[in-house]
Specification:
alpha+beta, two-stranded antiparallel ribbon
């Protein structure tokens, strides 16, 4: 991940006092896209942290059975 490429895809929005009030992300910038995807994945994980878990083998068998494999 190239920090310079990421910085090029980020702009600050400022108010009349010059205070940073928002961030603009250039989603055509691949490095910024990757950071945003990582952020969204992290938020999903945080939201789901208290959900019950299931063993991988159990889920795998269920998926294969639904495909008739």
């Amino acid at each position: 991940m190239n920090p310079t490429a990421i910085r090029q895809g980020i702009s600050y929005v400022t108010n009349s006092k010059g205070e940073r009030t928002a961030l603009q992300l250039d989603l055509t910038n691949a490095a910024v896209q990757e950071i945003v995807e990582d952020l969204m994945d992290t938020l999903d994980a945080i939201e789901r942290r208290n959900e019950p878990t299931r063993p991988f083998d159990e889920v795998k068998k269920e998926i294969l059975a639904s495909r008739g494999v």
